[in-house]
Amino acid sequence: MKTVIFCILAVGLALLTGCTRSGDPVTATGDATPVTSKANAQFAQALKLDDQQDFEDARRGFIAKPTGKILAADGTVLKDFDAYGFLGGKAPDTVNPSLWRHAQLNANAGLFKVTEGVYQLRGFDIANMTLIEGKTGWIVADTLTSRESAAAALAFARQHLGDKPVSAVIFTHAHADHFGGALGVISPKEVAERKVPVVAPAGFLEEATSENVLVGTAMVRRSIYQFGRDLPRSAKGNVDTGLGKDVVYGAVGILQPTWLIFRATQEMDLDGVHFVFHNVPNAECPAELTFSMPDKKLYDGAENLSQTMHNLLPVRGAKVRDSLRWSNYMDQALEQTADAEVYIGSHNWPVWGKTQIREFIAKHRDVYKYTHDQTVRLINAGLTPREIADTVKLPQSLSNFLGARGYYGDLRHNVKAVYQFYMGAYDGNPANLNPLPPQESAKHYLELIGGADKAVAAAQTAYDRGDYRWSAELLNQAVFGDPSSKAAKELLAKTYEQMAYMAEAATWRNSYLTAAQELRNGPPAKGASKAMVLDMLQQTPIERFLEAMAAGLDGPAAEGKNLKVNLVLTDTKESYVLWIENAVLHFKSGAPAADANATLTLTKDIFVKMMAGTAGVKDTLMSDDLKVGGSKIDLVRFFTLIDKAPGTFAIVTK
Ligand SMILES: [Zn+2]
């Protein structure tokens, strides 16, 4: 039964923990080249980066600042409030000056009073927690990523605002950085006993527990690039994520909603406060709501509206998002919030003033609409993704607006997302219908060039004149074509560093710097641990695990095998028949099949732990809650066919 330990992972944002390296990592040491320094200096001149309004808004209503660290139960440091202390003063030449300013703004951690009866905790995690004063207690909107950060934030608020119970919870959307800390705010028992309303958008639980289950392993691996998790916090390392500072990689859980918002507009009172909710699915997240509090003239745009251009397709990978729908929601928001004088969101800092809010929403609306429309125009003119990405530039009225610049999303990446949304990944050129795999073509190119050393010499010339994109392309061929070339890896790492230093998007900076780190140190030795997400996995429907299990079946190894297994869950009274046919794993809900090779009877708790790979032999074989009927050998044969992806795959090396 040891073999019944394989990996799947369900994480809303694919943000999880546990990857370690052996030995001392070599990290970025390179200075900015003269070309990079000059580019950054010119970048600063093009924008009004000394505008102070955002800094005033990011500090407005400040009550108190947290210090020290947030720790896990075992003492692991999950969050160090001093880690970004280096962010003062003028931008160093190793950071894009626009990103530096944004990183400074996001560094304003603390408890803030937004308006009468509304407070925000910022900088305790990547997202914000909003507290609204009800008649009897706190209405908590969004509960951060982990139990630890949420508990710390709420305790900090209680210390400064007084101790009151949580009287309602609102989840704005189904990404883990907004619900994962729910159990640090209130327990399911308390919710049930005190009948505490838990409000969420329609489809919340399904999306939260299943978005990314199938490809969670790869998304977690790639999110390490996007969020720069393993980078040092420094002017040559991680300065921000675009949406805020660190994701707090603690224990992730979830609460079942008691009220769902499924209409375009739905009004309700929570603990004596009037709310107007709007259901806005399938833009930033498959399940999302925004809300207004008319009595407070406040609008919460959730994550459809942040102080950055958002992702139409995150660099970690996801299903592509609908830019036109997103833009339409912004248009509706302008009508829904005509009276709003305070804007808050799930990330970053608020906006005050009717005119400022309308401008903020309208600019975001038009950034997504312009991106959409101009991409479509160029698709019809015959341009392909890489060409469109190099062609589309925002008009000055949009590009000068700092609140919608590409700190998290990036216009060039978003343009490709629009192309993919309508046209798919293929660009129409038959040269790309059946190209060689990257390593094969790299070997051929190296042969033509005359070996890795010649490629490195040519790349060095490109690097010296600041043509980093060409240097990276050439060296990528050299690294893939000749994995033994240390010189190619080192120059590619140096190239990525310069690209990182120039990048305005924190997600690009983090990706380039993580790539440089892995070129020098190799991919991580260990993949993500699933132990931290068990609370959430317990809420995940069994079907999601079975789908992931089917997608883990080793097709070639399963060829010609016909095995049937009954799965009986004693506590939830569910029963499934699983069988392999044509090297495909099928499952059906129903009574155990009489002709099955084996029957596995157990509790959902143990099944989930087995799926997550956290159950040891003792938990399984020795448990009274697990029984095997029929052929144990066949059961082991069945589970041996399921792949155990460790999530440590190489990305920039071969
Ligand atoms: Zn978020």
What percentage of amino acids are in beta strands?
5-15%
Report the total helices. 23
Which regions have little confidence, pLDDT < 50, spanning 5+ residues? 1-23
- Category from helices, strands and their pairing: alpha+beta
Counting DSSP E segments of at least 2 residues, the number of strands comes to 21
What small molecules does this complex bind?
A: zinc ion
| CATH fold group of the largest domain | Metallo-beta-lactamase, Chain A
- Report the major sheet: 8 strands, mixed
End-to-end CA span? 33 Å
Radius of gyration: 26 Å
Overall number of domains: 2
- Using the alpha-carbon principal axes, give the shape: globular
CATH superfamily of the largest domain: Metallo-beta-lactamase domain
Whole-number mean pLDDT: 93
Helix content: 25-40%
CATH architecture of the largest domain: 4-Layer Sandwich
Spatial arrangement of strands, main beta sheet: 1-4-5-6-7-8-9-10
Can you give me a brief rundown of this structure?
It is built from 23 helices and 21 strands.
What does this structure look like?
- The chain is of the alpha+beta class and 654 residues long.
- The chain has two domains: 63-423, Metallo-beta-lactamase domain (Metallo-beta-lactamase, Chain A), CATH 3.60.15; 541-640, SCP2 sterol-binding domain (Nonspecific Lipid-transfer Protein, Chain A, 2-Layer Sandwich).
- It is built from 23 helices and 21 strands.
- The strands form four sheets. Strands 1-4-5-6-7-8-9-10 form an eight-stranded mixed sheet, with helices on one face. Strands 11-12-13-14-15-16 form a six-stranded mixed sheet, with helices on one face.
- β7, α4 (147-161) and β8 (166-170) form a beta-alpha-beta unit.
- It is globular.
- Residues 1-23 have low confidence and may be disordered.
- The site of zinc ion has 8 residues, from loops.
